Amino acid sequence: MDDQQPLLLPGQPFPPLPKGEFVLGDGAYGREGYVVSDRIGHGTETKLGTQTIVKVVGTQPPLALPKAGSTVLGRVTRVNPRQATVSILVVDGLPCGGAQATRVGASNNKAAGEGIDGSDFQGIIRAQDVRSTEKDAVVLAECFRPGDIVRATVISLGDARSYYLSTAQNELGVVHATTRGPSQYGWTAAKHVLQPMSWREMADPVTGHVEPRKCAKPDWLA
């Protein structure tokens, strides 16, 4: 049976251990007669016959699940005339997704919440949820493009596959986008980060190229 100790930091010794024979496991090592942790985690003592295995179980960052009312950050993956599909990355300031998704993200340059196909937590922004006025005149291709990072709120759990998201408030919409230009392989993203010019336009500060977006109100703008 495991006996869990308080959180330990790297280089911090275990609390005094009962007398007996100890075996040092993962995350633990001996120094000057003490058992010391080599990582952030909880110390555990596992009885195995007459021996006690001492190890440190590393902690993982808290992972959040989207729910109605949550504010999320996500990457736009697809856009069609009816809706934009978003891979949700952050929920209320915390990374979302399972441990497997996080490991996949680390190995494939994807964020927590993005699995192999980037759709562990998928959101949909419908045309009627992009803005609060002139909903019938919304053209999604002029609001979002694949690769954009958007801030949105979860308005409902949607269907079995996706959450319904909204960008209808001033502080919601595209928060990060890059310019796109022609190449021999089609249109590709450039290195220049677009700057918001209004709630519906962003501009390349280097070339002056202007692209339509549904922009989020910048945090620094009162």
TrEMBL record:
<keyword id="KW-0963">Cytoplasm</keyword>
<dbReference type="GO" id="GO:0003723">
    <property type="term" value="F:RNA binding"/>
</dbReference>
<dbReference type="InterPro" id="IPR019495">
    <property type="entry name" value="EXOSC1_C"/>
</dbReference>
<dbReference type="GO" id="GO:0006396">
    <property type="term" value="P:RNA processing"/>
</dbReference>
<keyword id="KW-0271">Exosome</keyword>
<dbReference type="GO" id="GO:0005730">
    <property type="term" value="C:nucleolus"/>
</dbReference>
<protein>
    <recommendedName>
        <fullName>Exosome complex component CSL4 C-terminal domain-containing protein</fullName>
    </recommendedName>
</protein>
<dbReference type="GO" id="GO:0000176">
    <property type="term" value="C:nuclear exosome (RNase complex)"/>
</dbReference>
<dbReference type="Pfam" id="PF10447">
    <property type="entry name" value="EXOSC1"/>
</dbReference>
<dbReference type="InterPro" id="IPR012340">
    <property type="entry name" value="NA-bd_OB-fold"/>
</dbReference>
<dbReference type="InterPro" id="IPR039771">
    <property type="entry name" value="Csl4"/>
</dbReference>
<feature type="domain" description="Exosome complex component CSL4 C-terminal">
    <location>
        <begin position="65"/>
        <end position="157"/>
    </location>
</feature>
<dbReference type="GO" id="GO:0005737">
    <property type="term" value="C:cytoplasm"/>
</dbReference>
